[in-house]
Each structure stands twice: as structure tokens, then as C-alpha cells.
Amino acid sequence: MSDILHIVGGGMAGSEAAWQAAQAGVRVVIHEMRPQVGTFAHKTGNLAEMVCSNSFRSDDSEQNAVGLLHWEMRAAGGLIMASADAHRLPAGGALAVDRDPFAETVTARLMAHPLISVSYEEVTALPDDGHWIIATGPLTSPGLGAAIQAETGAEALAFFDAIAPIVHFESIDMDTAWLQSRYDKGETEEERTAYINCPMDKAQYNAFIDALLAADKTEFHEGETAGYFDGCLPIEVMAERGRETLRHGPMKPVGLTDAHRPTDKPYAVVQLRRDNALGTLYNIVGFQTKMKYGAQTAVFKMIPGLENAAFARLGGIHRNTFLNSPTLLDSQMRLKSRPHIRFAGQVTGVEGYVESAAMGLLAGRMAAAEILGRPIEAPPFTTAMGALVNHITGGAEAKTFQPMNVNFGLFPPLEDARGGRRGRKERYKGYTDRAKEDWQAWLAAST
Fold it and tell me: One GO MF term, please (predicted)?
């Protein structure tokens, strides 16, 4: 019993943690409450179900920190990345995933592993002994959340995470919209035409903003506060910050040329990204919302090309809780008051599918190494994974701690000339070159 690793939560982090530990030779039990206990955001009982976007974001491992994180996870034999690569969709320079086959593949591979079993049950208390990883994500059940809160003696921080709507392709007017990735990015024609673009002139944009601001919104329950994560703001919250905010955010028109009217410069552009391999579903990029369903339908049909849109899913909003990890977790991602318990994924205060899975990868490797009697240190801060875990376990200021995507601002400065006044492209290449070398050395030393 003492040699078994128990993982609470079968999302991105829990699934990756289970895979890494089992591949190291440790027996694993995943405790997953779905489908016995559902959430409003999940639709299936699959492990690693994607509930918000279907994008893993940039796959550029030389110029982008999240692309570097992809590279590090692939180098470590990550299950999440292997499954994402197997179900990749055209998305310019991004890694977008056909979400249902992706989750089915992760589930099948975990269930087929001889050292992994799944127990479908809700865990509502912190365990007193054994080896545990809690990877319950932003929708931690009320019972377990209360137990964590009682143990830490601190109020769990909270913000609201919003879900973007999905549209049936056949209902989009392609005489108005056109296919193009921003700046025609991509190595193939399919990649260069991975997005549907809906143009707006100035009058249409202003009418859209007016309707957005006036629309009925979801009301918060008493005692809840709307502390949004800036990387996932509802569009109406962005609009409230200024009429031009959306034009400089998800509706920016740069890098796009209207295929039907090439001499007309759109004032704003709404982009949709393919959501499944068949190309029958597209999600509206950056259009997370807390509008009520009736209002969503009316407002989104104001977008040129979407006048007759049929929605496979409307947007939604949910509370997202996370630990004040810099005060509660040590460098091994262990709860300081109960070091037999590790935390991983979004509940630690990282944001995004890839970051969550990456923290699961580290937690699984660290827990397995400890069980096998050969503990390992956290990876160096010069790597994407090391920079991220350092941020959540002490690098961030506890008083102002907020969820964080991986970014080069978390990396230590370069010591060579590329860290000075040289161009950003060369500097980013310096970060990624250094990270890859250090990550491979860490993997070799810790395997």
C-alpha cells in the first residue's frame, strides 16, 4: 500500500502524473469522481477532457515559452503531448486538438497500462498517510475544497474562467467570411487557412460593442467576487475597459486580408478556429463570455458571417479556485503541513492546459522518485518547466499571487550578449537554446 501513488483528479495534470509515475515503475491509482459526480463544464467521463479551448497555443519551441514547454514535455515522453500530436488540427503556428479523440486516446492508454487503475469516486478529505497527488483542477469539489481550506488555514483564492462558444461550420456564411491564418502563418496550405475570419467595419463594430455592453449577464452569487485572470477575460469585461480594447485583443485586424474585398481594410475581425478533425465545428477565438444564453445568440449573430449561426455550445462561466502556492508548497510541490501530499495542475496557480499537464509531469516524476528511494531535485529555473514550478513554489510574491501562463519573464536573464539590447528574436532563441540543453541534462540525471 505504501508503494502506491494515489492521484486525485483525472484531468490534464492527473493523467500526465499517472503516466510519468507508471512509466517509472510505480503502481498508480487515479481517483476520478466523473462520471459518478459531474460538473457543469464536463460533458463526458473521459480522462483529460478539454472543457474550454481546444488549443495548446503556440508550438514554436524557439521563439515562444509555451512552445518550449511542448518541447520539454515531448522530450520527457509526455502522454498529453503525444496524444495531442496524434489528433492535431490545422491552426497556423498553434497546436489545436480534436478534443474528443484526444481524451479518448489518453483514457485508453492510461487504462491499458499494467500499473495504472482508475477508481471512480469522489475524494472529500485529505488523506492522513500514503503518497498522494491532488490534481483536481479549477473545479475542485466543494467537499475536498473545504478540506484543503481547513488544512491550510487560508482563504482559497478564486477567479472566474469563461468558456467560448462553438459554431457549426455549415451555418457560417463563407461569402462574407474567409479562411486565413494571421500573416498566412503555417508551412502548409491547410495551416495557412486554419482560421475563419469575419470582418467588421467601424459602424458594425460599434453596434456590436453597444449590444455587448447592454446584454444580460450571468449574476454572481452572494459572497462571490469576479477576480478574472487576464489571459481569459470575458469579452464583455474587456469591452467595459474601453471601446477599442477588443480591436487590440481578440478582434485585432492585423495580418489579415479580406479574400472577398482585398482592398477594404476591416476595422475589426472575429476569428474562429477549427474545433474537430472533420472541420464541422469552430470555436470563436477569445470570446469567453458570461452573457446569458439568449443574449449570446442575439449578440453573436450580429457578427458578419454569423447571422444564421447554429451553436453547438454556447459560452459559460465557472468559478476557478487555486492555492496560494508560494506560501503552502515546497519546491517538490508538497504541502508543507502534510508533505505526503503533492499538488499539481491549475489548482497550484498555473494557467492553461499545457502548464497544468507540465506540473502533473513534474509531480508524477518527483513522487515516483521519492517512492523508489531516489528523490530528484526540481529542474533548473532556466528551463520552462523549472521556471514555472519556481514561480508557483516561491518565485512569486505571495500577497499578489495570481494564475500564470509560462512566459520568458519567469526565466533568469541570459548571461551572454543575447541578454542585452539585442533583438527580441535572438534573445528568445537564447532562452530556448539554454533551456533545451539544461532540460536534457536534467532528464539524463534524474532518470
Answer: flavin adenine dinucleotide binding
How far is residue 278's CA from residue 300's CA, in Å, rounded to a whole number?
23
3-state secondary structure at position 70: helix
Query: What type of residue sits at position 91?
Result: A
Tell me whether residue 223 is annotated as binding.
Answer: no
Query: How do residues 392-422 score in pLDDT, each as one tens digit?
Result: 998 888 877 877 889 998 999 998 755 554 5
Instruction: Flag whether 14 is marked binding.
Output: yes
9 is in an annotated binding site: yes
Q: Select 162-319's CATH number: 2.40.30.260, 1.25.40.10, 3.10.450.50, 3.40.50.920.
A: 2.40.30.260
* Equal CATH topology for 5-156+323-446 and 162-319: no
Fold of 5-156+323-446: FAD/NAD(P)-binding domain (3.50.50)
Q: Is 251 annotated as a binding residue?
A: no
CA–CA separation, 367 vs 29, rounded Å? 13
Is position 10 annotated in a ligand binding site?
Answer: yes
Contacts of 441-445 with CB under 8 Å at 24 or more apart are 442/379, 442/380, 442/383, 442/386, 443/75, 443/76, 445/376
**pLDDT band, very low/low/confident/very high, at 145 (cuts 50, 70, 90):** confident
3-class secondary structure for 11-26? CHHHHHHHHHHHHCCC
Is 12 annotated among the ligand-binding residues?
yes
Report the amino acid identity of residue 78: G
